[in-house]
């Protein structure tokens, strides 16, 4: 989402592009990020010299066996990667940024020199601090910014409130600019005695997909380095960051003591209609897939997360909160909506005072770990937990699933469900309020079941599954080798890129020259755009290089067909879609293999706890970069692509068939 204003949501003033009619033309998509300025040879030589020196120091640090020093190397590497990428990919967007790059190299070298002496003064620094971590997704170093309050005691035991602040859209928000801003500006809010975490979110994707994982990883890294009170963590943001805040609030409602979204968007179709004047013509599965990130359907989850929404009175993006206010009203919740009088796209100073008073009050109360009443709404097993309730399996993913659970008197628990086939009630040690000396009864959809009591450490865990339409105690039992969709193994294709993945290139050639050309082009496209849009480096290995180590640890993205890719040849007969030199066979349908290709996600037959993906990177393409609300999955679990239609800015070719697998990973 972009607007013709200088956003208060960004740390520094940076003019953003305006969405307009031209951004509704899929065949005329501008490059995002745009190419930056040419770096003069003298300055390029200086930067390259600084990069070489810093890399030498980093390489020296990596030889140490000191675990503490090794754990701090990412705090140095972020400077090297930021400048290297800006120089290599022409992402200095203004001449002054070249000078910023030089300063970042000096700062990185200073940290490296300190760390080589066993010192790390930035780890004991208050105020503005930039840190880094190694992402599980692609093993790249990623930066995050912190505001450490002056009151923070590095040797104490007291725990601190932490507010996550999601930044606004910035098409020029390279790592160089992000780190520079994080070292110069405290941002919109700096509450007393509060650590403020500014995630990078892997650029400008509304903190979705790898951007979503970045937030969770940055938070975990912050918790490893600072004393964070788990019961006093909040999510906040404005503009694109407001959209991110809505998303994190509804998907992870039990993790925060409060949410404070401002402006942004909260769903895809209405926002694009109102803000972009875009005429949408989605396929049936695209409409289903909107439910991954569209927030109104999850509104009831905010029963667990106190929410203080903000909008400017005359801000077009007030639409986001209006939509959520209506959705909350439908489930019986009256939303607190602070409105800045006669205010466009910024936070009114008087509103800030009101918002801070409410957030401070909520922080004093903190998160409720074991609430008596739980409401969990889910459309996918990706977001399957709320406090002590876990959704284990659904009748039909992408339809509304719901669990309502209540702790009652006399050791009774009442649970009502919709579109749920298995669930677990779980409380950790010390958390269960039930009487461990008395019998416990769970009434689930009207059926009373006597269940085990809490254990002596006050932990409690019971599972249920439906058998022939009747609830039974215990987890579902499947036949050996039976595949079933479950949390983090439920699809769609884009889910493979929210965990460790490897692109597996073919050592051979496809039987069809058309398929061969398309595979090579799409693999190159996926590699380039992973870095361009998610600021990482896709790991690429040839099929002959894949060992048990990679199979055990990562999702494998196989490029090619069974003739060209050895791994695909090995597993093709274990996939629900067959592919030979003549035909691709999907159930009773056949597609000529000389000009069709298969795209899919499936549990890897060589390791069913990880995915295998055929011929796809993340599924939204260049057209979606122009507006963050478009950045949603474009393909479900599988698709057949007719290669006679060239790949474009929306699809990898003509999608002639596509669908989800059922809850047992079978063709529907």
UniProtKB/TrEMBL annotation:
Supply one GO BP term.
proteolysis
Which GO MF terms are attached to this record? serine-type peptidase activity
- Which Pfam family would be a valid example here? Peptidase_S9
The UniProt keyword set, sorted, is: Signal
Gene3D superfamilies of this UniProt entry?
A: alpha/beta hydrolase
Q: Where is the Peptidase S9 prolyl oligopeptidase catalytic domain?
A: 214-352
Protein biosynthesis among keywords: no
Q: Does the keyword Signal apply?
A: yes
* Matches recorded under PANTHER family: BLL1128 PROTEIN, UNNAMED PRODUCT-RELATED
Q: Which domain of life is it from?
A: Bacteria
**What name appears for this protein in its UniProt entry?**
Peptidase S9 prolyl oligopeptidase catalytic domain-containing protein
């Amino acid at each position: 989402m972009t607007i013709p204003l200088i956003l208060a949501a960004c740390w520094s003033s940076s003019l953003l592009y305006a969405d307009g009619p031209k951004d509704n033309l899929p065949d005329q998509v501008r490059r995002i990020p745009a190419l930056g300025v040419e770096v003069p040879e003298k300055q390029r030589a200086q930067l390259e010299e600084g990069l070489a020196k810093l890399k030498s120091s980093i390489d020296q640090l990596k030889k140490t066996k000191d675990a503490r020093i090794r754990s701090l190397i990412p705090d140095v590497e972020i400077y090297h990667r930021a400048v290297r990428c800006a120089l290599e990919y022409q992402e200095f967007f203004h001449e002054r940024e070249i000078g910023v790059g030089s300063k970042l190299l000096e700062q990185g070298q200073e940290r490296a020199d300190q760390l080589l002496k066993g010192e790390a003064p930035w780890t004991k620094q208050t105020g503005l601090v930039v840190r880094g971590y190694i992402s599980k997704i692609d093993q790249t170093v990623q930066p995050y910014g912190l505001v450490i309050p002056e009151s923070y005691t590095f040797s104490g035991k007291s725990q601190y409130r932490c507010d996550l602040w999601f930044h606004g859209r910035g098409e020029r928000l390279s790592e160089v600019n992000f780190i520079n801003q994080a070292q110069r500006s405290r941002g919109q809010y700096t509450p007393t005695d509060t650590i403020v975490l500014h995630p990078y979110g892997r650029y400008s994707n509304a903190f979705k997909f790898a951007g979503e994982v970045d937030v969770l990883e940055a938070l975990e890294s912050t918790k490893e380095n600072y004393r964070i009170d788990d019961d006093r963590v909040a999510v906040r943001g404005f503009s694109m960051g407001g959209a991110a805040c809505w998303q994190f609030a509804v998907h992870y409602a039990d993790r925060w003591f409060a949410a404070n979204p401002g402006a942004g968007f909260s769903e895809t179709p209405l926002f694009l209609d109102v803000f972009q004047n875009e005429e949408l013509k989605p396929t049936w599965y695209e409409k289903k897939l909107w439910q991954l990130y569209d927030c109104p359907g999850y509104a009831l989850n905010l029963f667990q997360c106190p929410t203080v929404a903000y909008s400017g009175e005359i801000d077009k993006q007030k639409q986001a909160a209006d939509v959520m206010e209506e959705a909350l009203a439908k489930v019986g919740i009256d939303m607190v909506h602070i409105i800045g009088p006669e205010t466009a796209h910024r936070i009114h100073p008087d509103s800030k005072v009101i918002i801070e008073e409410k957030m401070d009050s909520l922080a004093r109360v903190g998160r409720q770990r074991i609430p008596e009443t739980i409401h969990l709404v889910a459309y996918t097993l990706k977001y399957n937990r709320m406090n002590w309730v876990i959704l284990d399996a659904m009748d039909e993913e992408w339809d509304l699933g719901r669990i309502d659970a209540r702790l009652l008197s006399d050791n009774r628990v009442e649970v009502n469900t919709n579109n749920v086939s298995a669930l677990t009630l779980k409380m950790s040690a010390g958390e269960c309020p039930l009487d461990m000396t008395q019998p416990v009864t769970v009434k689930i959809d009207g059926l009373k079941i006597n269940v085990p009591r809490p254990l002596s450490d006050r932990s409690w865990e019971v599972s249920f599954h439906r058998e022939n339409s009747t609830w039974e105690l215990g987890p579902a039992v499947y036949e050996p080798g039976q595949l079933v969709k479950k949390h983090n193994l439920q699809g769609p294709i884009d889910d493979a890129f929210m965990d460790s993945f490897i692109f597996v290139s073919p050592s051979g050639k496809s039987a069809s020259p058309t398929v061969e050309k398309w595979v090579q082009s799409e693999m190159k496209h996926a590699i380039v755009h992973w870095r361009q849009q998610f600021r990482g480096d896709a790991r690429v290995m040839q099929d002959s290089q894949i060992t048990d180590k990679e199979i055990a640890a990562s999702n494998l993205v196989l490029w090619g067909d069974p003739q060209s890719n050895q791994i695909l040849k090995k597993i093709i007969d274990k996939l629900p879609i067959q592919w030979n030199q003549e035909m691709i066979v999907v159930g009773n349908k056949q597609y000529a293999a000389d000009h069709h290709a298969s795209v899919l996600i499936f549990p890897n037959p060589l390791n069913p706890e990880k995915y295998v993906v055929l011929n796809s990177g993340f599924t939204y393409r260049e057209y979606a970069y122009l507006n963050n609300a478009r950045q949603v999955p474009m393909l479900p679990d599988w698709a057949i692509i007719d290669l006679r239609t060239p790949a474009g800015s929306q699809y990898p070719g003509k999608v002639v068939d596509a669908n989800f697998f059922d809850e047992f990973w079978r063709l529907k």
